[in-house]
Amino acid sequence: NWDSGTLFVDSSANSVGIGTTSPARNLSINATSPVLQLCNSTTGTSAENGFELAVAGDTAYIMQREDANMIIGTNNQERLYIGSLGGLGIGTTAATGYQVDITGQSGYDDIMRLTAVGTNIGARINLTNTGTGVARINATNNSLA
């Protein structure tokens, strides 16, 4: 074992503890401030730049601190896109013109499912206006089935 007081490496070098001498995983970090912060090398260590995984009290969050998009993917494919202005793309890398843009996969008719849970509870979509505009469901070629 190697222990510097703040960094601990077990004797097999399979577990590292930062702020703990009893790592529960391959890398265990015990901290009261953001757990991991990756900063852009051109901007140094400023908390205003870069990517941050943080735990604050009982809340965990992932933060992109720059005016940049965040992309989450699987199998080397982009699956979830969060634009720098807050648009959300699912199955697409751009939420252009929409707050939420969902693109289905080829061969699937169903793109989204809403499931209500409980006795006598029905799934519903609530369209609420904050201004004088008309709430509507718009379908291509004026067809909705």
Polypeptide structure, described:
By secondary structure, this protein is mostly beta strands. The chain contains no helices and eleven strands. It has a four-stranded mixed sheet with strand order 1-2-3-4, with no helix packed on it. A hairpin with a 2-residue loop joins strand 6 (51-56) and strand 7. The termini are far apart. The model has no long low-confidence stretch (mean pLDDT 76).
Q: How many strand segments?
A: 11
Helix-strand pattern, N to C?
EEEEEEEEEEE
Summing up helix and strand content along with how strands pair, one would put the structural category as mainly beta
Roughly how much helix do the residues carry, as a percent range?
under 10%
Which tags fit this structure?
145 residues, 30% strand, mainly beta
Task: Briefly summarize what is shown.
The protein is mainly beta and 145 residues long. The protein has strands at residues 2-3, 7-9, 16-18, 27-29, 36-38, 51-56, 59-64, 70-74, 77-82, 88-90, 100-102.
Question: What is the fold's blueprint, element by element?
Answer:
Layout: E1 2-3, E2 7-9, E3 16-18, E4 27-29, E5 36-38, E6 51-56, E7 59-64, E8 70-74, E9 77-82, E10 88-90, E11 100-102
